[in-house]
Amino acid sequence: MQRETDVVVIGAGPVGENVADRARAAGLDVVIVEHELVGGECSYWACVPSKTLLRSAAALRAARRVPGAAEAATGELDVDAVLRRRDFWVSDWSDRGAVDWLDSVGIALERGHGRLDGPRRVVVERSDGETTTLVARHAVVLSTGSDPVIPPIDGLALSRPWASREATSVTAPPRRLAVIGGGAVALEMATVFAGFGTEVTVLARHGLLGGMEPFAGEAVADGLRGLGASVRLGVDVVRVERRPDDEVRLELADGEVLVADEVLVATGRRPRTDGLGLETVGLEPGEWLDVDDSLLVRASTNEEAPWLYAVGDVNRRALLTHQGKYQARAAGDLIGARATGRPLELAPWGAHTATADHSAVPEIVFAEPECGAVGRTAESARRSGRTVRVADVDFGSVSGAGIHADGFAGRARLVVDAELGTVIGATFVGPDVSELVHAATIAIVGEVPVDRLWHAVPAFPTMSEVWLRLLEALGRPGAAEGAAAGDQAASPSTGTTDDDDEEPAA
């Protein structure tokens, strides 16, 4: 069979769904191709199940930090209930609801493996062996995502290691879990299983969370140890063996042998571009797809009459669902504009560009404690040639944090371009700090002058007061020396700093 349509999207995860929806909203006929579940990795094996698995133990720990609630939170975590809640949020790994949504908005679904067969042509191979050829009048969008990398450690691939899918779809936690890796997936899953009572050992070749400020990884290492996990840094796993009794043995470079029931590997991702037919349009199979800010694939076949786009993980700009959906909105709107003759907005920060990928990518690691960051670290900013000012604040100086939890431990950092006077990076570490990141994202995207931020008054008593303390640490132009109160500790009797003279709210 051969069928014509306006747009073909290969990959029906959240990113592909967003491209399809925006192109459909422009009045185009759209076909989306998926060989697994509509909703993709994020919905069934990544973001949704991992955060659901994390939440229950985090809520219990939060209650235990607040007197009054702590006395009631004396029981143990109900792991079976956590897993049932996870099953609900992944719809028991059924995509019926997602398929119904496609039907409701008029996006056609082709079940099967899609591959390019020359410009604007996509062959879909169904499970029954039948094929359909889709011919796109306007665009083909590749949104196939990424897969975990299994490093070439002797015996590892034969030891039936877990990757993120196996970890998030677990039906019963193992007694002992070894985690190889020091990034977000490794640390979130280590936090999940430590919360379940599993004996967790994290093995990282370097530090933790290498893309964030150093204090973020240090805090998570301490947090995991506080949960009873072992965190081993600067170690190399050289051999892995699953024994006949199903026990996994991991040999380290120094000869030490560790024993676990399962081993989780979280050491990176690779693009799902094998078997995608890239060679039919002059591209290399198995490679990440290079795109410009309008998400057009850089290829000779795409120069005269643009038609091939790549969004989400597969272009390696930011391997995060929210950033992929941001790209998808820009690409879908651009495809619609090109097809209908509407003006194109391709300048930086235009409607049809993914400019934020370069400078304002927010990331949250829901470990113990939470770590949230956006923009540049101090070191990466300096390496790029910028002159920077850095403000560091301990959350102990923030009244709202002290009320939020007794002994609240955390740290915040702003990185400011000294010449431009704008925020270019922010990091927050501590319990429940994830909601602070969006304010920093807005400041960076909006290029808000730091002097203007003094007029964005944080409500009292909230953790957002950390913004005032950060500004005080930077110093306000024109203020008398020593006027800042950012380094004053909260008064244990009132929960306020000495410069807070307002009446408590009713």
UniProtKB/TrEMBL annotation:
Residues 361-467 form the Pyridine nucleotide-disulphide oxidoreductase dimerisation domain. Signal peptide: none annotated. The keyword Oxidoreductase applies. Its cofactor is FAD. InterPro entries: Class-I_Pyr_Nuc-Dis_Oxidored, FAD/NAD-bd_sf, FAD/NAD-binding_dom, FAD/NAD-linked_Rdtase_dimer_sf, Pyr_nuc-diS_OxRdtase, Pyr_nucl-diS_OxRdtase_dimer. Residues 6-323 form the FAD/NAD(P)-binding domain. Residues 479-490 have a biased composition (Low complexity). It holds the Pfam family Pyr_redox_dim. Keywords: FAD, Flavoprotein, NAD, Oxidoreductase. GO terms for molecular function: oxidoreductase activity. Its EC number is 1.-.-.-. Residues 479-506 are annotated as: Disordered. It comes from the Bacteria. Residues 497-506 have a biased composition (Acidic residues). The keyword Metal-binding does not apply. Belongs to the class-I pyridine nucleotide-disulfide oxidoreductase family. This is Dihydrolipoyl dehydrogenase family protein. The lineage of its organism: Bacteria, Bacillati, Actinomycetota, Actinomycetes, Micrococcales.
